[in-house]
Amino acid sequence: MEASKPKVGIFGLTGCAGDQLQILNCEDELVRLAQRLDIVDWVMARSDNNHLCRLDLAFVEGVVATERDLQSLKEIRARTKTLVALGTCAVWGGLPAMKNDIPRDVLEREVYGPGVSFLDSVEALPPTDFVHFDLQLPGCPIERREFLAAVNALLAGTEPELPKVPVCWECKAKENVCRVVYAQEVCCGAMTRAGCGARCPSHGVACAGCRGPIEEPNYDANITMFAGRGISWVEIARKMSHFSAPVWMTQGLEQEMRHEPKR
Predict the structure, then answer these.
(1) Which of 89, 93, 98, 236 could cross-link with 126 by S-S, CB 3.0 to 4.6 Å?
(2) Please, what is the angle between helix 233-250 and helix 219-227, to 10°?
(3) Which contacts qualify for 94-97: CB closer than 8 Å, 24 or more apart?
């Protein structure tokens, strides 16, 4: 008797659905992967979904920006054995969390006008702030290669290996000319987790930090390096917080950058 396939769900909270689209873009690889998985709940890709069954593996993208998001997230966690945060929004907060310093009522009024009563919005935060995730795959959007490798590892019962080096490492490996040295702008490559193949710097664009911070950024060295080019820690913090604002605030990373570099 053939063993049953692992049941899988793919879900989106508030966000652009770009990470789910990346999975669909896997095309041939996704077809082969579907031979090993039973995708039973994926609203973006199928019309007949089972919203109640137990799941062996589930992926969640987007942020918690409404009460409904939070309720959905808790329900997904309760029915799932292995839960994966998919994309920078789910891991770090992403772009939706950039404006948490502005009161929600002000944002609602500016976007929808006065007298709005149908919204249940809350401060935009990553799902990882609310429930336990067994794995976190950053990226805006995720890298297809990294996603497929992670799924294969999980199916094999092993821990996926994610890069711990910064984007600068990949940039140097490609022998790119360093934009930090030759341009008066903030390149986040030294503080951002690798895995993208230094795509932006390879096309002449400074790293924007879309994959979130590495585990141990060397803030002192970065502050000193950019200060020599007339760039303050405020500009560095502002650039890094574009995609990971909540972690910069909750873990005190911005406050850490306020200190003078160690001599």
Answers:
(1) 93
(2) 160
(3) 94/15, 94/63, 94/126, 94/140, 94/243, 94/244, 95/140, 95/242, 95/243, 96/14, 96/15, 96/62, 96/63, 96/65, 96/124, 97/63, 97/124, 97/125, 97/126, 97/245, 97/246
d(CA 54, CA 33): 20
Domain boundaries, the chain: 7-155, 167-258
CATH number of the domain located at residue range(s) 7-155 in this protein: 3.40.50.700
